[in-house]
Structure formats: C-alpha cells, structure tokens
Amino acid sequence: MTTVDETSAGGLVVDPDHHRVVLIGRLDRGGSLLWSLPKGHVEDGETYPETAVREVKEETGISARVLQPLGEIDYWFIADGRRVHKTVHHFLLEAIGGELCDEDDEVTEVAWVPLGGLEGTLAYGDERKLVGKARELLATDAPAPESVGNWRPDEVSE
C-alpha cells in the first residue's frame, strides 16, 4: 500500500466577543453527523495562516483573521487504497465578517456553538484539546507572534 503525506490548515474561529465558535458538520460513513473545526489542503504558494483563512471562508462563509497558532494535529488513515499521514496546522482565528453558509460540498452543516459547550460537541479528542489552549490564549489576550504570517508549508516545526 502506498503511503502519502498530506498537509492541511484550519482552526478555531471565535466571534468578536469570543463567546461562540463556528463548527462544521460532516456525515461519517454510518450517516452520523460529526462536528469539527474547519480545515483543508494547503495550496501551492500558500502559508499555513493563508490556508486557514481561505478554508474557513470556503467551508463556513465566515471571513476571519488569524490571532495565534494553536498547534498541530497529526494522524493516519486509509483512503483510496493509500495510507495517508496527515498533519493539520491549527490557528485561533477571529471572525471579521461573512455569514454562515454550508455550500461547500464537503460540509453538511455549519453552526455557531457556545465556546463553553465545545467539549461535548466536537467529535475529535485532539480538537477538544486545542479548545483548552484557545481558552488560555483568549484569557491572556497574548499578542500574536510576528512570524505567524510567514509560516510556509516547507517549514518544519519540531
């Protein structure tokens, strides 16, 4: 079986008051709706923050700006006869405009969810862990590092 590496970016989008978060819902193979953070593949020439902003807009209809990096999630799965190692670069983003829209073919539903209720809503444990980090960052209002806008897919963080 062929093994491939894939890289995506996305993140946790908060409303301007930092009370709600936008999530996407996708149907799994069994027909259950699974809620997760928006994310998608990095296009040629894009930085990870640029990908996160673009994917959030495409999947949710919400325009956002990056506040902080949240971290990486890395996992394996099998699709189309290939073993895929996927790394997703997550960011904390703040909504600056747009309206919820689920016109993306990969998304079944889009919703604003209270920040306090995410642990019981998000389908994936790794994403639930990022929520804790996002809460800490929002509580401290730490300034974004200058390097956020310069992260490129060819850079490796350890």
Describe this structure in words.
This protein is of the alpha+beta class and 158 residues long. It has one domain: Nucleoside Triphosphate Pyrophosphohydrolase, CATH 3.90.79. The chain is 18% helix and 44% strand. The chain has 2 helices and 7 strands; from the N terminus they run ββββαβββα. Strands 1, 2, 3, 4, 5, 6 and 7 form a 7-stranded mixed sheet that branches. The longest helix has 16 residues, at 125-140. It is globular, with a radius of gyration of 15 Å. The chain starts with a strand and ends in an 18-residue tail after the last helix.
- What value does the Rg take, in angstroms? 15 Å
Distance from N terminus to C terminus (CA atoms, Å) equals 27 Å
Q: Domains counted in the coordinates: how many?
A: 1
**Second rung of CATH, namely the architecture:** Alpha-Beta Complex
The global form is: globular
Summarize the main sheet: 7 strands, mixed
Low-confidence stretches: 142-158
Approximate strand percentage:
35-45%
CATH-level-4 superfamily name: Nucleoside Triphosphate Pyrophosphohydrolase
Oligomeric composition of the shown chains? single chain
